Records
---
Amino acid sequence: MLRSLLSVSLAATGLVALSAPASASASNSPVVTRAALDPSLVAGRGAKVDFVEQEAENAATNGSVIGPDRTAYTLPSEASGRKAVRLTAGQYVEFTLPKAANAITVRYSIPDAPNGGGITSPLNVTVNGKNRTTMTLTSQYAWLYNQYPFSNDPNADLLHPDWWITECGCVPNATTPAPTITKPFRPSHFYDEQRLLLGKTYRAGDKVRLTVPAGAKAAWTVVDLLDSQLVGAPKVSLVAANVLAFGADPRGKRDSAGAFDKAIAFATRAHLKVYVPPGTYQVNRHIVVDDVTIEGAGNWYTVIKGREVALSTPAPDGSVHTGVGFYGKDVSAGGSRNVHLSGFAIEGDVRERIDTDQVNGVGGAMSDSTIDGLYIHHTKVGLWFDGPMNNVKVTNNVIVDQIADGLNFHTGVTNSVASNNFVRNTGDDALAMWSEKTSNAGNTFDHNTVQTPVLANGIAIYGGKDIKVSGNLVADPIREGSAIQVGSRFGAEPFTGHLWITDNTTVRAGTYELNWNIGLGAIWFYALEKNIDADIQVVGDHFLDNTYNAIMLVSDFGVKDLYSITNVHFKDIRVDGTGTSVVSARVKGSASFENVDARNVGAVGVNNCGSFNFPPTGSEFSLTDLGGNDGGGTTGPWLAPWELPNTITCDDRPPVVAPPAPSPWS
């Protein structure tokens, strides 16, 4: 408890896991990473993106490196790779460009205002010591506190004093004497990012320096990483309904929503697409789209930006705010079809989580539609689709700094794909399929990259039929979830048919579950409301640098004798480093294992608790060894004969042995 409270207190001040100052000449040559790893370790997995990632801790700096630390509610835990660089006035971090670039993205954190609401503070950008530009950083979209659905007020009392909390191991309003709750309580969502066009193209080897100037309002500025890229020229569409012809204001001074509506109506009648040329367009409500193509000049050039607007009376769907977003028609109105959105940015203004609000970047129902090449920032959810709907393709988008999910296929979404998307800093599941009331079917998440989901999972599948999760890269989940979850929860329909989870890589997952006080798996199967018994094939996945377990199969203690997990098959798996076990089984059921290779395993290879009834016949969970399972760690082979088929080895809280950094597999 004391360590938890201390971590919370330190996080609030930014003084977390502070190391000695880094050498100013730490890196004269660029260190390029993907998810803070050597790119060779994740080759062929995740999204192919136009930018190059460089971690601040690998760059030259006279600031201080913070981390590594995976403890929730601390600044390093939410940083990519669990490290970052802390700067004060006069300090800098300098990146050497690995390729020609004319644009950068800086991921950063600065303090909140004492009473919440955020501050702004400058950060100077120079290249080779010249051409200074000042970025105005903000924490207005960061810093959430307290319990779900969270608060912007660091001084708020507990939102749910009738909930059990790990900090005191108690239910506060049922405890005498009342526990002391340190404020701010559970600060999180520390980071934001900002993009900048540099005005010219710089060469490989040129040096981009980020400096905190004297007099900066922020007492400290933490830089997590810099993405650099070469942005092409704006796209021009001449044969189109140009929104400027209908009165849209590219300077963003006037609201352009009506002009967009007129352009869409004209384009539909004339069988043209809508073109949105370079500029920033103010749109403060939904743009309803059906049977229309809307193209921008590219998401660095065409920005559609809006304020969150309070409604005078709640909408029929329960929303109390509206804001910028492109929405298909509701299914009750027949839904939309043949919608194609591409080449622009959506900049929202969402600073608090209100689950009934429809303030998402893209929403509604859109069958036979495509969403391609968007940059979606500061909305509640990047893309939330409410089906039934069929055949939507979500490709090549960047979805960042969301209050809740990145993307959710919700309720009867079928034959749809999300591929080659980059998702960072979501406030809930980054990519989710949720079969609430009506089952999803035939959907695929393929070759996406997910980094630092602050809450919940990188990829979550809640029910459905014939689902594929393939080729994705998921890094650094923080709390109350992990990299990949397969869950019967949230009222989801059962899993049926097949579920293929193939050729994915996770890194620095297997988080600590604060409500259970145990470690999760990088991939975890959770039977909370139903059995999980569809044919599940987990093949070719790599689980790297797992904080606790690589694989978990679990039920909740209150339903442990009701639900089981069966028919799960693991094959051709690599596990490189676990703080504890390769497999943790806390449910009744069974799974098979073939060619699962593990190394640097910190505890017994299989933590088998079953349903916690501990019968003399062995655990209620059985493992089948199909051969080729090799390697292990501190206690010998990870899948030893003595563990089979159902030896009880239950120890949920063994000593954690931090694994070494991942390395090439020989």
---
Amino acid sequence: MPGAVYNGNRFISRNIPYSPKLKDIEDIGIDKPMIISDVPRLNTGMGRSAIQERSGGAALPCIGVYSPVKQWGFLIFTMQGDQHGDFGLSITENHDRSQAEICISAPVVREITQYTLCNNSAPSTDKPADYGPGEEVNILFKTIEFNGDTLNCLFVKYNMHKNDLMPKPKVRQLLPLSVCFTAIEEKFNRDNWNPGAGYYSVGMKDGKYPFLQDWQIGWTGGMISTLPLLAQGNVQSQDNVRRNFEWVFAKGISTSGFFYDSGEQGKFWYGGDIRNELTKTGTWCAKAAMHCITS
């Protein structure tokens, strides 16, 4: 399910509230397996294995399957819903995982639980439709089968056919992107730039948790902002970006060799989940490489 489920989301999971960061020291390390948050997923062990999603939970109402053994796959596209709301998209495996059932239902009814932010066990609020006499249910769908020697064939076919049932939305050209960029650039240089320390803050450093609006290296943070400002910004922006790099390389690296992920006032540093002192670390090396390519 694009944007929602990949490889069945069949990974070890932890129930951690937003924003989900690993807390237990046993889970943390470069030699640990993939661990995800509590999202809809197929079971890694015994017991029931099923995913119940709503069509609006995916980037596009679609379920795709690829078998590397058979080098074969298929895609099922459908619409988002009808007059009663979103459709349901579900995958249910049998006991020994040798078969799976794919279902499109109208409307979506997740019988027991539904997914909310970082919680796949929230009580379901879905309600069945109350159909009147003579009322019909019509589910339009399209199936695409293909042969391919790599998983990438699935994504190629998806992009070829993703608009077969769901046409591309009409773009409303309200404001040129160049005008938008100039407005955002001016705002960042005026309100987000810290001239004393030499870095771009996340936001206005207000609200309940001002430190979350000060310095973050990734996520919504300052080093993300530097890439477009370096590539397309004016002279002032590019000078600020260079200062930002000089500052973060000189002061933003912890004794472990990783970057601190957040901080305040250019001198107080945090890492990982501040709710748990065992998880203080952060990394940003990939983003630095992107900047080097851009420059």
---
Amino acid sequence: ACQCQQPVGNKLSELLAPISEQIQEVITFREKNRGSKLFNHLSAVSESIQALGWVAMAPKPGPYVKEMNDAAMFYTNRVLKEYKDVDKKHVDWVKAYLSIWTELQAYIKEFHTTGLAWSKTGPVAKELSGLPSGPSAGSGPPPPPPGPPPPPVPTSSGSDESASRSALFAQINQGESITHALKHVSDDMKTHKNPALKAQSGPVRTWNSRV
């Protein structure tokens, strides 16, 4: 974004359509697995994954991410209550998952306090999305896991993980990762599942009743 001018009208929603579709898939997956023993884990992810839409939130994206983190904690507290004396892997999973959003809040506070920072002189994001691909300094966050099992116990120390995530956010702020993501947005990706997403002015906000 720091290399591009902000898209006007519905263009930003169009560029974010693939993210919105993936968010909706996570929510749908949770709804289809209400009978799962890991339903609280799935709910924690489902209720907070919408924080990825912070790029469309202004002027306070940080508080928006915190709101999503708080929604996740409603369910992670249940996970802790159920597994804290049974299986430490679930406790470690809760800590690792919630740290994603707390560190994202710190990143936003440092670089994008009032919203995604756009360039005033660069090409508009729509134009840049069609430029040839170049080497990227870092990759974006991984997609949500396809199945319900929680991730294994982290093998590295908490400080190493924190440093790695901080480095990732620093790379994202350079603009290269965001630019790289825009280059792969095609018309087919924007409409193959839900054309109505084009008209959205922000991230999908689907709230499920808490059980």
